[in-house]
Each structure stands twice: as C-alpha cells, then as structure tokens.
Specification:
alpha+beta; 6-stranded antiparallel β-sheet; 2 helices; 33% strand; elongated
Length: 168
C-alpha cells in the first residue's frame, strides 16, 4: 500500500511540475486548456513555491541573463548605386545579392540575385561566393571563400562594401 502511495505522490509531483496543477484532482470542465497548461507549466518552472503534493521535488528558480554582444559587424557601401547605406550583421548568416530575400539587398545590375554568403564562425566572418557571374573580390583579390577582417573591402560588380567590427 505504501508503494502505491509513493508512486502516486511521484506522479502528482511530476504532473504538478509540468502543468503547475495537481492533474489527479481535476475533473470535467476544470481541466486547463492547452494555453493555460503552457502558462502554468512556465509559471511552475520559474517559481520557488512547493505544494504539499510535490514536497519531495523542489523546483529550481531559473534566471536568464540577456547579455548584449560585445562586438557587432557593420557593412557600409562606399562605392556604387547604394553608396551610403549601412547594414548591421544581426544574423549568423547573411546573404548578399539583388533579390529582395537577401539580408543585404543591393541594386547594382552587375551583382547576381544571390551573389555571396557571409557566415559568422566563432568570432570571425567567412565569405563565400555563390558561383556568381562576375565573382567576388576581397581587397582586390578574387575569392571563392575567404576570412573577413575588420577594414576589408568587398567588391561585387561596381559596388564596394567596407566591413568593420564595432565594439560596445
């Protein structure tokens, strides 16, 4: 008999942890909806409270720290039709080209629709040419794939983009 009570206490504790309520006592229309159960689950996982049903399962309190990145990348168009425009690298992957779906959309007709891809790997950038018609140049050297440093110049068609890393 004690074994059954032990397992029922465990089940009540588990359901209380996931749903924030004692599911064994709910009946009929009192059962929470999916949204309420998600809200209860989140509220239960972030609180310190313990109920009689889950005394053996104390809930930890979690704290999330949102820290701003210490540095970010800025792409400034210094030559070409889009001169003066700036783009901040906010995604781990940036596509450059004429197509509107690109993160950095340029109007230069000599740039391919999907011209290049820039990926953030560790703390530096890698640029890859996506088999564009006119190619991609970094500091006047044609590349297929290359590492980008702060101060580098990317040339695509008649457009030149300066890459800088800004510190906060």
């Amino acid at each position: 008999m004690k074994i059954i009570e032990f397992f029922s206490d465990i089940l009540r504790g588990i359901f209380g942890f996931f749903y924030g309520t004692d599911r064994a006592k709910e009946t009929g229309n009192e059962a929470p909806t999916l949204k309420r159960s998600k809200l209860n689950r989140n509220a239960a996982s972030f609180s310190n409270r313990e109920t009689a049903a889950d005394e053996s399962f104390p809930t930890k309190q979690f704290r999330f720290r949102k820290t701003a990145p210490k540095a970010f990348w800025v792409f400034t168009v210094i030559e070409g039709i889009d001169r003066g425009r700036q783009f901040v690298g906010a995604a781990p992957e940036l596509r450059i080209g004429r197509q509107a779906e690109n993160h950095i959309c340029l109007r230069d007709p000599k740039i391919s629709r999907f011209h290049a891809l820039i990926k953030l790997k560790d703390s530096h950038l890698i640029i890859k040419d996506l088999q564009s018609t006119n190619g991609t140049m970094i500091n006047d050297t044609k590349i297929e794939r290359s590492k980008l440093n702060s101060g580098d110049l990317i040339r695509m068609g008649d457009t030149v983009i300066r890459v800088t890393q800004e510190k906060r």
